Amino acid sequence: MTAVVWGAEAWAEVRSSLDRCIKCTVCETACPVAAVTELFPGPKTVGPQAERFRTGDHSPDLSVDYCSGCGICSRVCPQEVRIAELNSRARAELKRERGAPLRDQLVARPGLLGRAGRPVAPLFNWAMANPVIRWAGERTLGIHHKAPVPRSTTRTFSYWVGHHAGAKSARRVVYFHGCSTQWYEPHIGQKVTAILEHNGYQVVIPKQDCCGLPLQSNGLFPAARGAVTRLARQLVPGGTDDLPVISSSTSCGLMLKREAREILGADSPELRSVSQRTYDIFEFLLELHHRGELRTDFKPVPLTVAYHAPCQQQNQLIGKPALGILRLIPGLRLVELDRSCCGIAGTYGVKREKYEIAMRVGEPLFADIQAEGPDLVACDSETCRWQISAATGATSVHPLEILHRAYGGS
Amino acid sequence: MGTDAVVLGAGTAGMVAALRLAAAGASVLVLAEGEGGLPLAPAQIDVLGYRPQLVLDPLGEIPGFLDSRPDHPYRLVEAAEVEAGLDWFLELAAPLGYTGNPHQNRLQPTAVGALRPTCLVPETMAAGDLSGGGSVLVVGLKGFRDFHAPLLAENLALARPPSGAEVRARSVEVSLLGDPRDLRPQLLVRRLEERPVLAELGREIRSRLEQEDLVGVPAVLGLERSHEVWQRLQELVGRPVFEIPTPPPSQPGQRLQQHLFRALRRLGGEVRLGARASGYRASGDRLVAVKVVTAAREVEIPADRFVLATGGIGTGGITAGPEGELREEVFGARVSRGGAPEEPLAEYMATQPLDRLGVEVDDEQRPVGGAGGALFENLWVAGAALAGAEPWREKSGEGISLATGYRAARLAGGGRA
Amino acid sequence: MNTWDTDVLVIGGGSTGAGVAWDSALRGLHVTLVDRQDFATGTSGRFHGLLHSGGRYAVRDPGSARECASENRILRQVAADCIEDTGGLFVSTPEDDLEYADRFLAAAQAAGMEIEEVPVGVAVRDEPRLNPKIRRAFRVQDGSIDSWKMISALLRGAQDHGATVLPYHKVVQVIRRGDRVEGAVMEDQRSGEEVLVHAGCVVNAAGAWSGQVAGLAGCEVGVRPGKGVMVAINHRLARAVLNRCHLPSDGDIIVPVRTVSVIGTTDHPVADPDDTECSPAEVHQMIEAGELLVPGFKESRALRVWSGSRPLLPKTETSAGAGDREVSRSHTVLDHGARDGVEGLVTIAGGKFTTLRLMAEDTVDVVVRKLGREAECRTRTEVLPGSESHHFYWIGNRQQEAETDPPDDPLICECELVSQHDLDTVVARRPNWRLDDIRRALRVGMGPCQGGFCAFRVAGMLHQGGRYGRAEANSALREFVQERWKGVKVISWGAQARQTRLDRWIFEGVYDLEHLPE
Known about the structure:
The structure holds three protein chains of three kinds.
Chain A: H1 8-16, H2 26-30, H3 43-51, H4 72-76, H5 83-98, H6 102-107, H7 110-117, H8 121-129, H9 131-141, H10 157-162, E1 172-176, H11 178-183, H12 186-198, E2 202-204, H13 213-217, H14 221-234, E3 245-247, H15 250-262, H16 269-277, E4 278-280, H17 281-290, E5 304-308, H18 311-314, H19 321-326, E6 333-336, H20 355-372, E7 376-379, H21 382-392, E8 396-397, H22 399-406
Parallel strand pairs in A: 1-2, 1-3, 3-4, 5-6, 5-7, 7-8
Chain B: E1 5-8, H1 12-23, E2 28-32, H2 58-68, H3 79-92, E3 99-100, E4 106-109, E5 115-118, E6 120-121, E7 134-141, H4 149-156, E8 167-174, H5 185-191, H6 195-208, E9 214-218, H7 226-237, E10 241-244, H8 251-266, E11 270-273, E12 277-283, E13 286-293, E14 298-302, E15 305-308, E16 318-320, E17 326-328, E18 335-336, E19 358-359, E20 379-381, H9 391-394, H10 397-413
Parallel strand pairs in B: 1-2, 1-15, 2-11, 7-8, 7-9, 9-10, 15-20
Antiparallel strand pairs in B: 3-6, 4-5, 12-13, 13-14, 16-17, 18-19
Helix pairs in contact in B: 1-8, 1-10, 3-10, 6-7
Chain C: E1 2-11, H1 15-26, E2 31-34, E3 50-51, H2 62-78, E4 83-84, E5 88-92, H3 98-110, E6 116-118, H4 120-126, E7 136-140, E8 143-145, H5 147-160, E9 164-166, E10 169-177, E11 180-188, E12 194-204, H6 210-216, E13 224-233, E14 241-244, E15 253-257, E16 260-264, E17 268-269, H7 280-293, E18 302-312, E19 331-335, H8 336-340, E20 345-350, H9 356-371, H10 397-404, E21 411-413, E22 418-419, H11 420-427, H12 435-442, H13 454-464, H14 470-488, H15 494-510
Parallel strand pairs in C: 1-2, 1-12, 2-9, 5-14, 12-20
Antiparallel strand pairs in C: 3-8, 4-8, 5-7, 6-7, 10-11, 11-12, 13-16, 13-17, 13-18, 14-15, 15-16, 19-20, 21-22
Helix pairs in contact in C: 1-5, 1-9, 13-14
């Protein structure tokens, strides 16, 4: 299967991959959720096995809802069964049939939450930090009162972009910043822009909306398909249809790279084009480095940093390029955390009935972090950073923030 | 910049080759479609168990075995190198307490109660060598579907090791703390890492012991903390305790895999799973890069040296088509049936058409190319991808993987570019 | 020797015999049914599972088509739990004659079938894997029927009405006094003990084997076994039964039955109905043929291959046609009194699974006449055990049950979702189960791994539960592994080849089955 296929064919290929399952159970031993709860019988059980009992007219099973969608099963499967993708589809069918609860609809729309929170950010943040209100939220929305939630910001990233006089250059890239940079962490986008400009690139930052990933992981497929096709159009502003598209959000990058086609079955000329050109920021920088084009005018960063590669970054199948770059920084003591999942899996761990499971999934990682006691934890995914900080109290950053600092940024 | 050596496949052979290369200072990237056979295998190191008669001295009997099976992969490796590979493994796997003598097979019970020859075992299985007989209490766990203590014990009691010594066996079944239900292995193995659960199990076994001097349990004694669990259980029971391998998934196999993955990481190597090699680029008879499908596109991964350890039919390294066509998936290397028949035999327990399938190699473990020379000068093959072996019937799989992986690394290790 | 009297002794525990037992029992007759093996091990357990709408026979054998159409309706009423209402499509592939489609439509309507032409676009939308190049499509009332469930329900129903059913009892002698058959001696194939049953009437319902049984009574029945090969594909490629709209030939039906799709079939005359070998050539013929209905069929995973023998009647036994598919697939009741001067013996010959009820009715009508009894057939309306709710079986049933009411015990067969509780329930029904019998009752070992994981679990559990001794458990395990190999060895390619490697690893590498004591 070297060819990348789109549309109905992509899903047909995912579904027929169930034929390759030989029941070896490798996926079940690697699944972080099945290891901590009886509620989830395991990826093989709800995936290639259960799929033989599904006809598409009525979902016979419910436990697939406890799959966190971390994708580890697909990665460890020696037979190329698209287990996580099968499970995502089955979850969507379940929600389509039984209706997604209000909570799923809410956490699935970060723009909505972000917009709702922004004009009154201090109040929103206070509310999210207030246990009484969080309890009320759990009761009414099903969001666990202890679940990590982002802090809203008064100034969005696009506000900053509007006031940023970017450098002109013949070498250009498109930057896909994603919702969390837009609404919660605009400093990430500013640093990405600075790093790329430092390396001589002009950064094109078109107006952009959500990629649809949270909608997808909550089973709201038609809306998700609409979102990702719209985003693909937005990421091809005039004259940029052959530029690399740089993503600093691992899960949203993966959406463009693969999930839109394999899970959503979305398809459009723009999407095909953008998907093929999408790079994780460190994947892009490491390629620059391999070509000898990365600036290495680093200042020492005398810190101990523990690095956790999030699942959705690992699912891009590009290795751990952030490590390759961070290792170049003088003075930095880098510890590679050797655990598979922090538990949060996007919005999985904020749900009332899944919060405890997510915390147990993350326990080995949290324990390693606490044992290591690093100055910083670096992790490419925003939701994982929030989970890690909430669970361990450690300060977590995107690895590009460390790179930014090595380049002299503050 | 970049990678010195790319190893395709993360099973025993691939990991051995990768670890040896990394230890020699190479930067190593292991690319694998998924986890290999390690998490499924009993984690006993077979070298040679049947030829077809029972083998007592595996290293010593390889030459005689090769007389009758001249195409067997052991032909590729000098006895001294097989031994060196095994010694190296014993050292590498010392944290898991691997033990054994390459010149002396052990006879360990299987899950159905056959007495099976193998060579090296982890500490958690060490007491289970019944070559000299013994009296075993076999302990079943209620609700665990992959271990049937009564059948095991009754069969085991009939076993007669060549020493003529007597094996006695009796079975009991115990319940884990209030949990008689479906004990899925991934949960069971972690439950046993909980001290109260283990303590209860230990007390229960002790109370049911009669004059048995050994206790055999299914191989589920913990994952990350197996040493502690096993040792504690022995203390609680007051007898040597040994694990008996179960059908997949294998907890001892997962322990070994974790150990090998971590060892490679410590040496600066990387294992990248989910990344199946989809093709290659060569320049003349030199391999330049392998192609890998990432989430978005196919990319090239250049390296100086390459090891093919993707296994045979079972793992998809080689595929069989409906018309009997056989294909090595990455390089299109020539595939041989290794002397097995073309048509299936009616009797299951016989050498069947796919049993000895593998890549045809020259004396240097390089795939044979068109003109009979090597397909590529910098590509070596190791493990179950090699033609000529029947690892499960012969009990030779790990030995072949260790020996040929070890040697592939040596052949690939000379002269960094 | 254990001896008893019965009104009707039915020889053969396939669909025909089970149907006759159910019909006779409902009419108040005392029935004894025997089979040389487990029930449904002959042709009935070896077909594709198609509940015919009649479409397959519409053009060439209108009588059979009409029978199928009407029997299909009745079975849906009385045996819903054994039937899945998949519906069926007859499609004209690019290789099929469009003119035939017109004849087909007219013939189907004439046979009383419910049939509706649907636009090609609709058919392809409903069946995404269907060849998009089809040119016409007709929707019919095909369904799939679980033969083991059906036969088991018929026998259970008969037993509820006083019938005695004996598997593994082979007829070794037909008791004949002068020109009258009075019963038979059966040998228990496991214990070797014999039983003698005196019967008012003996019904030879041995299907493709009925010539052999008739021979024991000194009669001749010219049944010709016609072997058909079937291949099961690992999952459902379609929701509905897919038929090519052309004169029936090889490999032109794909039936979604339980968790698999079955493609069938071929037709080769064989001397011995026990000849069930399948050649690689026959298998490839099926796989190639599947491509026409479902492009990419060849890449799908073939799970298993098997064959069964149709009980074909040459024209000397019926009034119709010539050539195997040319002969009527209808049935004939042979009254050996009228035919051969041998009273007390009736042979029901020919026919097919879908018309089993009608075959039984016609047979028992003759039997009651011969016994001088008067009793109306009740099987048109009497609902079979298990089907009282009139709900059709649904593929998701087991999955849904496992989810809504999680079993409190281990799942032993993951592929087909069978729990230890299911196993215990089934083995309590009678003594002496072979693993292969349990497979038919529960589908254990019928999924992708073909027993790789579950065979050991079942053997171990039956040993622990005291149903198997040690040696019995060992040989049961060996026998099952050998039996599964039979259906896999000629399809060892693709994913199933990988599976055979893993299974071999488990049996030889992990268990060392080869060196297990006897």
